[in-house]
Amino acid sequence: QELEKLGLRDDVDLHVYEVPVEYQTVQRLIPALWKKHSPQLVVHVGVSGMATTVTLEKCGHNVGYKGLDNCRFCPGSQCCVEGGPECIDSIIDMDTVCKRVSALGLDVTVTISKDAGRYLCDFTYYTSLYQSRGRSAFVHVPPLGKPYTAEQLGRALQVIIEEMLEVLEHSEDKINCQHEH
C-alpha cells in the first residue's frame, strides 16, 4: 500500500494486488495476472514473522508444501506444478540488486535468501517464476514496526524494484546485443 502511494519512476506502470494466503487462489490468480498485464516483471512481497531484514529471495521451490492455508487446504501433491523443475531461479541477479541497494545507504538492511519457506510465499513465487520463465522476484519484509515503519519499507521496496528493473533492462540489452552479431 505504501509503495502504491509512492509509485515508481514515470515510465513504469505499477499494478498492486493483494494475493490471499490460499493455494488454489494463487494457482488461478497468478497466471491470470500474467495474462492480463504481460508485465516486464512481477515483484511479490510477503510478510515473514521471522524476517528482521528486507530479504530478496533468489528462487522458488516446487515441492514440500505441507502447511494448511487460510482455507485449511493443502495441495495433495504437496507441490506447485506437477512435473515442474524442483527449483526455479529468478532471472534477476539478486546479489547485484542487494549490493546496489545497500550502497545507497537506506535505513533498512537488505539481505539475500535461497529459501522462501515452503508456504504460500514460496508457492506464489514458484508459480510466478514458472509462469514467467524467471521474470519474477520475491521480497520478504518483517512485520510493520519490527523494526521498520511502513514508510521505510515502502521506500525500500521502491528502490529495490527500480534497481531490479535496471538490472533486468541491462541484462536484456546485453542479450539483444549478442543476438545482433
UniProtKB/TrEMBL annotation:
Pfam family, one: Peptidase_C15
GO cellular component terms attached to this protein's record: cytosol
Superkingdom in the source lineage: Eukaryota
InterPro entries: Peptidase_C15, Peptidase_C15-like, Peptidase_C15-like_sf, PGPEP1_Cys_AS, PGPEP1_Glu_AS
Catalytic activity: Release of an N-terminal pyroglutamyl group from a polypeptide, the second amino acid generally not being Pro
Functional note: Removes 5-oxoproline from various penultimate amino acid residues except L-proline.
Keyword Hydrolase: yes
Name of the protein in question: Pyroglutamyl-peptidase I
Active site (record annotation): 57, 121
Keywords for the protein's UniProt record, in alphabetical order: Cytoplasm, Hydrolase, Protease, Thiol protease
A GO MF label: pyroglutamyl-peptidase activity
Alphabetized PROSITE patterns for the sequence: PYRASE_CYS, PYRASE_GLU
PANTHER family, per the entry: PROTEASE FAMILY C15 PYROGLUTAMYL-PEPTIDASE I-RELATED, PYROGLUTAMYL-PEPTIDASE 1
Subcellular location field: Cytoplasm
EC annotation from Swiss-Prot or TrEMBL: 3.4.19.3
Gene3D superfamilies named in the record: Peptidase C15, pyroglutamyl peptidase I-like (3.40.630.20)
Species whose genome carries this gene: Baryphthengus martii (Rufous motmot)
Enzyme class of the recorded protein, top EC level: hydrolase
Gene Ontology biological-process entries: proteolysis
Gene designation: Pgpep1_1
Keyword flag Protease: yes
Primary location recorded for the protein, binned into one broad class: cytoplasm
